[in-house]
Amino acid sequence: xxxxxxxxxxxxxxxxxxxxxxxxxxxxxxxxxxxxxxxxxxxxxxxxxxxxxxxxxxxxxxxxxxxxxxxxxxxxxxxxxxxxxxxxxxxxxxxxxxxxxxxxxxxxxxxxxxxxxxxxxxxxxxxxxxxxxxxxxxxxxxxxxxxxxxxxxxxxxxxxxxxxxxxxxxxxxxxxxxxxxxxxxxxxxxxxxxxxxxxxxxxxxxxxxxxxxxxxxxxxxxxxxxxxxxxxxxxxxxxxxxxxxxxxxxxxxxxxxxxxxxxxxxxxxxxxxxxxxxxxxxxxxxxxxxxxxxxxxxxxxxxxxxxxxxxxxxxxxxxxxxxxxxxxxxxxxxxxxxxxxxxxxxxxxxxxxxxxxxxxxxxxxxxxxxxxxxxxxxxxxxxxxxxxxxxxxxxxxxxxxxxxxxxxxxxxxxxxxxxxxxxxxxxxxxxxxxxxxxxxxxxxxxxxxxxxxxxxxxxxxxxxxxxxxxxxxxxxxxxxxxxxxxxxxxxxxxxxxxxxxxxxxxxxxxxxxxxxxxxxxxxxxxxxxxxxxxxxxxxxxxxxxxxxxxxxxxxxxxxxxxxxxxxxxxxxxxxxxxxxxxxxxxxxxxxxxxxxxxxxxxxxxxxxxxxxxxxxxxxxxxxxxxxxxxxxxxxxxxxxxxxxxxxxxxxxxxxxxxxxxxxxxxxxxxxxxxxxxxxxxxxxxxxxxxxxxxxxxxxxxxxxxxxxxxxxxxxxxxxxxxxxxxxxxxxxxxxxxxxxxxxxxxxxxxxxxxxxxxxxxxxxxxxxxxxxxxxxxxxxxxxxxxxxxxxxxxxxxxxxxxxxxxxxxxxxxxxxxxxxxxxxxxxxxxxxxxxxxxxxxxxxxxxxxxxxxxxxxxxxxxxxxxxxxxxxxxxxxxxxxxxxxxxxxxxxxxxxxxxxxxxxxxxxxxxxxxxxxxxxxxxxxxxxxxxxxxxxxxxxxxxxxxxxxxxxxxxxxxxxxxxxxxxxxxxxxxxxxxxxxxxxxxxxxxxxxxxxxxxxxxxxxxxxxxxxxxxxxxxxxxxxxxxxxxxxxxxxxxxxxxxxxxxxxxxxxxxxxxxxxxxxxxxxxxxxxxxxxxxxxxxxxxxxxxxxxxxxxxxxxxxxxxxxxxxxxxxxxxxxxxxxxxxxxxxxxxxxxxxxxxxxxxxxxxxxxxxxxxxxxxxxxxxxxxxxxxxxxxxxxxxxxxxxxxxxxxxxxxxxxxxxxxxxxxxxxxxxxxxxxxxxxxxxxxxxxxxxxxxxxxxxxxxxxxxxxxxxxxxxxxxxxxxxxxxxxxxxxxxxxxxxxxxxxxxxxxxxxxxxxxxxxxxxxxxxxxxxxxxxxxxxxxxxxxxxxxxxxxxxxxxxxxxxxxxxxxxxxxxxxxxxxxxxxxxxxxxxxxxxxxxxxxxxxxxxxxxxxxxxxxxxxxxxxxxxxxxxxxxxxxxxxxxxxxxxxxxxxxxxxxxxxxxxxxxxxxxxxxxxxxxxxxxxxxxxxxxxxxxxxxxxxxxxxxxxxxxxxxxxxxxxxxxxxxxxxxxxxxxxxxxxxxxxxxxxxxxxxxxxxxxxxxxxxxxxxxxxxxxxxxxxxxxxxxxxxxxxxxxxxxxxxxxxxxxxxxxxxxxxxxxxxxxxxxxxxxxxxxxxxxxxxxxxxxxxxxxxxxxxxxxxxxxxxxxxxxxxxxxxxxxxxxxxxxxxxxxxxxxxxxxxxxxxxxxxxxxxxxxxxxxxxxxxxxxxxxxxxxxxxxxxxxxxxxxxxxxxxxxxxxxxxxxxxxxxxxxxxxxxxxxxxxxxxxxxxxxxxxxxxxxxxxxxxxxxxxxxxxxxxxxxxxxxxxxxxxxxxxxxxxxxxxxxxxxxxxxxxxxxxxxxxx
Length: 1846
Prior knowledge:
By secondary structure, the chain is of the alpha/beta class. The chain contains 65 helices and 60 strands. The protein has a 6-stranded mixed sheet. Strands 26-29-30-24-31-32 form a 6-stranded mixed sheet, sandwiched between helices. Strands 37-46-47-35-48-49 form a 6-stranded mixed sheet, sandwiched between helices. Helix 49 (1405-1420) links the parallel strand 46 (1393-1397) and strand 47. Helix 34 (935-941) packs across helix 35 (945-968) and helix 39 (1081-1092) runs antiparallel to helix 47. It is globular.
C-alpha cells in the first residue's frame, strides 16, 4: 500500500456496501450525498472510529476507561490511518450550568486567573483591600504621618471564661503594663509610644513587628490627643477604614459550579424558580366563582375553591366579578392570604403553592407545579450566579476596563454600599463583567492585560491560554457570543464551531480531523471563514474529512466523495470520488446535477403572493431580550416566513425566547420565562404553536417510524380484528413488541440479543427464538390480506414492520386512516425507510424529516391556524432532501398553517414567502430589523448581506464551477507545513536556547554524553507537547485522569504530530502482574470466558443449568424446615458508590432496611457510604418460619425475592430467639448444579481476575504461592514477601491463582488457567486454529482479533517462549522492555511520532537487531521514530542523528552535530562521531588477568546444580579478583543465576556470625568459595529519589558530614545550631514557605501544575538565620549550588567527603551540583551515583611502603551498569571497574554492552535461547575463547570488536 493513503477495505458499517476506498492524506476531503446514503457511517462510524480507537489504545488501561474509546467498526481492514479527532455537533451537557465559558474551559482558566491576579475592593468604601506587612505599615506611617506622636497598640480579646483583671495580670507578667482603651471584650494594649520620625525608623519597625506578633496580625495606631481616631492594619485581608475582614481568594470562589462561589439563593443558576401568577389566572374575564384560579378547578383541589368561597364571603370579596375588575386589594388578598394553610384564616394562593412545594417529592405534584413555574432572575445575585464576596475581586486597571466596558455598564454587586461615582472609578472588571462581554471585546481586554509587565510565569500562562481560546472563537465567527451564554441555547453549528476551536488550539499535524457539516449556523457571508479555518488545518499537515452539503465548502475541497445513489438500503455506495472540477463534469452524480443548476431545489415550489393575506399577522412589539434593540416585528400568518441574518444577529432570541416562549405561556403551556418584550399581538389567531427543533427523537430500538407517526396503532387494531385473533383472544396489545404477551419472551420484543463486551464493541445477535421477528410464532400466524392495489400475499405483523413506507402505502391502500398517517413520510422523501427501522439508526436529516412528517399527519385534519417554528431544518440535508422538505412545508401552508423558519440556506430563503432579515452584525452590533418583505425584493435591492447573497447565488454557483475548472488544472495547493518537527529556542533544563529540526517519517536517534539533554528534548519537549495537544481535544473530565505534562520552556514547536512514548520503567510489576496482564491478553481472555464460557459445578463437574422456583422452594422446605429464615434479594455486588437513590427506591416501597456489607442499615436516614469502597447490598424481602402450613406465603415471598434479585436470592438462617444470622445460602433460578442443587452467581469479568476478591483463590489471594502471614488486606503489597525464601505453590489452587468456581468455567473444554499456562507461540497457534461459528463467532470476533494481534507482535519481538502466566518480577529487563514495546506498537497507527527511551536496554545484540527491524517497519508505515539511544547499532541504522553536548549538565544542552552517520563521523566536535570513527581497542589494559582456563588453585566461587526458574542444573566456577561478565540473550537466565542464586545466597553467608546456624542454600545444591569474600555489594536499577529533597549529596551520604561541619563553626555554636539546623528535610533551619524544596508548586487543576522559585528564599531552601552561618566563606545554600568539581577542591581537607567526591568525578559526574534534584537526573547519571554510593561504602585501600596495596576483598555485583551511558562514559566506567579489580576486588557484571563484555577477564555466556530454550552455559572463558564458540550469539557479536586495531 502506498504511504500516501488511508486504505479502507470492505467497509460494511450500517448500510455501507463493502466499500473499498483510498483516501489521500493531507487533503481536504468532503463527503456528500443524499440524506441516509451512508456519509456518517463512512466518516464517523468507520474512519474516525478506527483512528480514535487505535490512538487511545496507546494509553494505559486506567486512562482508557475515561477516554471513551470508540467501537471497532465493521470493516475488513483499515491501513495507514492516523490518530483521529472528531468535531461534531453533539453537545453532551444540557444543563443551564453549562455555558460557552465552561465548554471552552475559559471559565476554568478565569477562576485560576482571578485567584492569582485579582485585587480586592471593600464592599463598603470601595477602597483596595490588601495585606499589611511591617515594612508597608512603616513606609505608610513615615510618608503620611511624619512628626505626629503615635501610640502603637495591639488588640487582646477577653475570653468569656476570664475576667479583665486576669488578662491584665497575664499582660503585666510579660511586661505590658499599659492599656490604651477597652472596647467591649477587647483591650487595646500599648506596644510603644513614639514620634513618627525618620530617626525612629528602627524603633518603630521593631514596635510594629512585635505588635503584629502579639495581636495575631492586627494592630491599631492611635494619635496623641485623638483617641477617637485610629488607623488599623492587618496582615490578613482587612479594610482598615471599615474594619471589615475578608477571606483569601480561592479558585472555587470564582466558580458558580462550586458551593464556595455559587450564590446561595440560586445555587449558581442565576435564576430562581417561582410561581407565575399570570398562569394561575390565565383568563382574567372569569370570576372567582367561575374558576379564575385555575389550579383550584381540578377535582383534587376542589376543597381550596370551597375554602376561597367561604373566606371571601367573610372578607366581603365578590365571587361573581371578573378577575380583572376586582379591586387591587381584593386580588392581593386572594393571592397573599392572611395566614398559613393550617390556620383558621385564608391561606391564599401563595400558601397553597407553599404547601404544594412541601409535597414536591411526589411525581404528580412536581408535574402540577411545572405548569405554573416561573424562572426569574435571582435577586440575591442579579443573575451573576456568584456570591457578592466573589464579585468584589477585580482584574485590570481603570483605563483597560473602561476601554472595553463603559463605566455606566459596570455591574454593581448586590449588598455593596458603593456610590455611583465610586463604582465608575473602580479599576478593572469583576468576573460577571467579563462573562457579559462579547468575545471580540474580551479578547482585546486580555491582550492588554498580558502586555503589561510584572506578570509571573503562571499568570502569563493563564492569560496566554485565555487569549488563544478567545482568538480561535473569533476566527470561526463566534465573536458575538458571551461566555455566560448557556450551551443548551446554542445551535448545532455553534457547538461544532466551538469544538473546532479546540482543534485549532491543538496545532497538531499528521492528524485526521473529521467534521460534521461545519457550515451549519453560518450565514453565507461567513462561509469563507470556515473554509479558511479548514484550509489552515490542512496546510498545517493534517487530513480533513468533512461531511458537508454547502456548495461553497464542497467546491473549496481538494476531493469530493459523493455517496448514494439513494438513501438507506439504496445507498451505501460511492457514486463519485474525485476533484470538484471532475464532479462538475460527472453525469452519474445527483450532487453534480444540482451544482450545474440542471436541477433546482425550487423546481416543485409554487409561487405565492408575497404580501399579507386574510390570515392576518402576529406582531411582536418592543423586543429587547439579549441584543435585540427594542424592535417591532410583523409575522404574516398562513405563509412560509424565513428569519435570517448573520450569526449572532438575534434570530434564535427572537423566535425561541420571545415568540415561542410567549405563545406557550399565552396558550397555558409555559416552557421557560419569555424574553423581554412589550407585547405580542394577534396570538388569538394561532390555535397552537409547535417547535420543530434538532433534538433527538428516540434513543431505544423500540422506537420506529411507524410508531412515531402513530400508524402502528391502527395497524395493530386491524390485526386484532382478524377472526383468528378474536378466536384466540388476541387484543391490539398482543401485537405490541413493547408490552403484552405476544412479543418474543426470549428477546423481550427487541428481535436481538445484546451482549455487552465492556471495553470492546457490544455485540447484537439476532434472537434465535424469533429469528429477529420480535413476536411469538403463534402471533405471526395471524395475517392481513393486502389492499386491492397490492400484489403481495397475506402478511403478519412482522412482515408489515419489514415493509418500506412505499410498500406499506400500497399494502394498506384500502385503509384511509393508515394512508393518512403514512403518506407524509413518503412526501418528505422517507418512502424507502422500513416501518420497523429503529429510530437511532436514522441519519440526522432522516430524523428531522420524520418529525416533520409526524406534524404533517397530525395537522392535516387537526386544528386550523397552527404555527410551526423550525430551527435550521436543512441541517444534514442534501439539495434533493431540501427540495422535498420545501414541498412538505408548502403542504402545511396549503392546509392553512403558518411557518417561521430560522435558516441560512439560500434555497430555502429564496423559496420563502416572506423574509425578516436581522443584523447588521452579530452580538451588540446586531439585533436590528434590516428588512421585512418578499425575498425577490431583498435580492433586487442587495442592501443586506442576505440580499447580496441571494442576488449572487445562481451566478456564484456557475462562476465557482468555472473558476474551479480553471484553477484546478494548475495543480493542488501545497501544504505550508515543512516535513520536519521544528523546535525553536528550547531552554528547558540545561538546553541552551537551541533550535532542533527532526525529520518526520524518518528514524532519528538523539544521542550524546549522559546528562547532555537528550531526554529533555525527546520527552520533556517533544512527547509532552504532542500528547498535550491531542489531549486538549478531549473534555476536561477525561483530562483530569490523563493529566498532560506541563509546557516546556520553548518559544515554539511546529509540525508536531500526536506522540506515543515508550519509556524505561524500573518497576516490572508485582507478583500478580503477568505477561498476560501486561499485554492485556488476559483481559480479552476474561471477556471471552464471561460471554462464552460454560460454567460447571466444581464439586460435581456437571454443567450448570437453570433451577426453577419450584425446585428452590422444595429445597427450602427440606433444608430449613421449622427454622426462621430471611430472604434477601442481591441488589449490588462489589460495586463502589453512595447508593442514595437505591435507598430512596427501597424506602418508597416500604422497605425500612438494606443489608450493606453484612450489616443492616436504615433506608431513612441512609448512612453515607464510603464512595471508593466496593459494597455488597442486599434487600431483606421477608422474614418467615419455614413449614408446610405456610407454603403459600413462602412461595409468594420467594417469587417476589427472585423478581427483585433478578433470579438470585440469598437465604439467611435466623436464630429464633435473638434474630441474629447464621449460615447463608445462595439460590439462582438461572444457574444451579443439577447434581447437588448448588446455585452460582452470573459470570462476571472480576470472577476471572486474581486481583479481585471475587476471583482470587481464598488461600493465596491470587499470588499462586503460599506466603506466610499474607492476607487479603496486603494484596498488592506482596513484593515484601518475594524477598523471602522460595515459596511452594498454593495447595488450594495448585498455583493457578483462582478460586474453584472460576476454574470450573470452561471454554472449548479448557479453563482459563489452561490457556494462560500456554507459551505465546503455542497460544498463537491454538487461537489461529480455533474454529468458531454462529453466535460464538459473532461474540468473540473483536476479542479474537485483539488476542491474535498482541500474540503476533510478541512473537515478532522474539518472545514466543514466554508463558502468559509468567509473573512480571521473574522477567528479565530485556523481556519486560519488549513486552512494553509490543503493547504500545501493536496499535498499527500511522502519522504518529513514537518516542523511545533507550529501547535496547536489557537486549542482547541479537535481540537488538530484531528490535531495529521492528522499528524500521514502524517507520515504513509513515510514522516518525525518535530514539534516545547510545547503542552503536541503533545509531548506525538511523536516518538522522542529533548529537547533544559537548559535555553534560551545565556543560551540555547544545546541538554539537546533526545529520547522517557519515556527517556525524566527520564532525570534529562530536564525541559520538569520534567514538564511532575510532572505537575502543580491547583490552584497554593490553592483556587479560586470566588465561583460557582456570587453575584448580585459583580463588573461585563455585555453584553446583543451579536449577532455579529456567536454569538447567548449571555448574559454574567464577574466578575472583577479576572482571567477570555474564552475558546471553534476553531470558537466558543471567539474572536468575547472578541475582537470585549467587547474590541471595552470598547475602546470607558473607559476614554472618559463625556461631549461628548455616542458612539454607537457595536455588542450587551447593555454593563454595564464598569464604574468600568479606563483603557483597549490589548496584541494581531501582530509582534513587522521586522528590526534590533527594539530591546527589544526600544519596551518596556526604550531606550529614557537611552539615556537621557547619554545625561545628563558631557562629553555629554561638546561636545554638546543631546539625539538624542545616537540613532541608526538617523544620527549624529550612525555609518555611517552600518547606526546604526551593520551589513552590502552584496547582492548576486541569492544567499542569506549575513550579515557581520560592519568593522567600529565592530557591536557596533555608531561612535567613541559617544562611548567616558560613564555613570557609560559603553558606550552606552556596555549598549545595557547587558543582562536584568545585566541591572536590573545597573539601580537600576532609578525606571522607573528598574520597566520595573523587569517585563521582571519576565516573564522569563532576558537572553535577551537590544539590541537584534527583528527579532531574538522567538514567545514566542516577545509575552512576548508585555505583559511587556502593563504592564509597567499601573500606579504602591501605597502602604500606614496600608492600602491595591490600583491601578488604569485596564482590561488586552490577546489573547492566552501562544503562544510559554514552560510549565515552562507558570507557570511563571500564577504567573505574578495572581500578576496583586491581585493588583486589571482584566485579561481576550482568551486561549486554559489547565494549564492556570485550573488557572482561572472564565471560559466562548463557543460552542458547531465552525461556525454556535457555538456562545453560553456552560458553565460558576470556573473550578470545568465547568468539570460537559456534553456539554463542555473543560470540558472533564480539568478533568485530576483538578485531579492532589502533
